Backbone:
């Protein structure tokens, strides 16, 4: 457990000389840094999706597939980090509505998770870390990876939400594939075909 003094030292603001240029930039940008970074992550996530989805990676050189998976995994993890920071009110501290809106978008894009339920589970995690009431707690009895994962996700999602997750992700994936196949057909019909 972190002591009060240790926690206080971790949350102290950075100190710059009051008349320095860095201090001016720091104080001017501090209120919007979280929202700018989270917007950038959302733009990269959407941009990489639009760029990579129509590409037939089997026709590309061997490095495309691992690089694409690594890049998308990195950006996708960023979505969860944005949602996590929003749960703590750190994205846009001066406007809770914008903060929660960005968190909700991020967690829905991450895994179709409901923001409010995720907040409640996350707060219960912080209220009792490492105890049986902590949704992230490993009880030691679920030693197989699959049984642990089912128990872990059960702390965050009920059966209906799991169904929404599985069906929703499948629908999104197949809909996007059909959209890009349709776009390629249109391009072929009009004589413009580009091998993505």
Residues:
């Amino acid at each position: 457990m972190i002591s009060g003094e240790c926690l206080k030292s971790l949350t102290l603001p950075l100190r710059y000389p009051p008349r320095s240029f860095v201090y001016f930039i720091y104080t001017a940008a501090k209120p919007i840094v979280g929202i700018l970074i989270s917007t950038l992550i959302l733009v990269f996530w959407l941009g990489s999706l639009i760029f990579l989805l129509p590409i037939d990676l089997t026709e590309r050189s061997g490095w495309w597939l691992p690089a694409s998976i690594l890049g998308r995994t990195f950006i996708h993890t960023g979505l969860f980090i944005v949602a996590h920071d929003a749960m703590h009110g750190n994205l846009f501290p001066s406007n809770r509505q914008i903060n929660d809106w960005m968190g909700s978008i991020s967690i829905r894009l991450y895994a179709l998770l409901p923001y409010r339920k995720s907040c409640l589970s996350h707060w219960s995690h912080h209220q009792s870390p490492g105890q049986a009431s902590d949704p992230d707690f490993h009880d030691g009895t679920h030693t197989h990876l699959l049984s642990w994962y089912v128990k872990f996700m059960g702390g965050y999602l009920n059966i209906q939400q799991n169904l929404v997750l599985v069906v929703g992700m499948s629908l999104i994936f197949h809909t996007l594939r059909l959209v890009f196949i349709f776009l390629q057909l249109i391009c072929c019909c009009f004589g413009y075909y580009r091998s993505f």
Remarks:
- Residues 4-113 form one domain.
- Confidence is low (pLDDT under 50) at residues 1-12.
- The longest helix spans residues 159-189.
- DSSP finds eight helices and no strands in the chain.
